[in-house]
Design a protein that fits this description.
mainly beta, 1 helix, 38% strand
């Protein structure tokens, strides 16, 4: 815990507010017992696809429901890469419900 918050939720203070998620943004999600953090890869109509660790005890890309989103954060870019954009992906795979 940092400042009375579970560590994943502390990522909501990283960098700058991101607004609409873009490739590489840090996404912070709420879950039972705390939070979860992953890097934005893309999205479908219902879920964000995020690269993260300890998702089912492995590093992988998981689909997480959009309604669980807590915060979108970006590094404080001096020169923002051109690849930072919103990416639409197919809605394939299970939706993660608990990343612990």
């Amino acid at each position: 815990m940092i400042l009375g918050r579970p560590l994943p939720l502390s990522w909501a203070r990283f960098g700058v507010e991101g607004g609409k998620p873009e490739l590489g943004d840090v996404l912070v999600f709420m879950r039972q017992g705390g939070g979860h953090v992953g890097l934005y890869i893309g999205e479908d109509s219902r879920c964000y696809h995020v690269l993260g660790g300890n998702q089912g005890d492995r590093v992988c890309i998981a689909r997480i429901a959009k309604e669980r989103l807590y915060s979108v954060r970006q590094p404080p870019y001096v020169n923002k890469p051109r690849s930072t954009a919103t990416y639409r992906l197919a809605a394939n795979g299970e939706v993660s419900s608990n990343e612990a």
